[in-house]
Design a protein that fits this description.
With 89 residues, the chain is an all-alpha fold. It has a single domain, classed as Cytochrome Bc1 Complex, Chain D, domain 2 (Orthogonal Bundle), CATH 1.10.760. Helix content is 44%, strand content 0%.
Amino acid sequence: MKDPAHLKRGEMIYTGTCGGYCHNRSSGVADAPNLFDCTWLHGGSDEEIFHTITTGVPGTRMIGFGGKLPKGDEDIWSVIAYLKSKRHC
């Protein structure tokens, strides 16, 4: 989804929920990698990223966000669209 409002919402959620805490562009933390490069530890397809965000990653600080965001799955898809729009491959 390339809708500007959708991408803006994804950026807002990422910044307030992910980027300001664990993930950021310069993260060197093993269990909170940089999400703007092209190395995805748990799969890089939209569906694999959705699964990781929804269920989390056992043994890491990555909690599952399924059912925890205001617009549910729609917000997760917004975050995925934002991340993919800003990747540096």
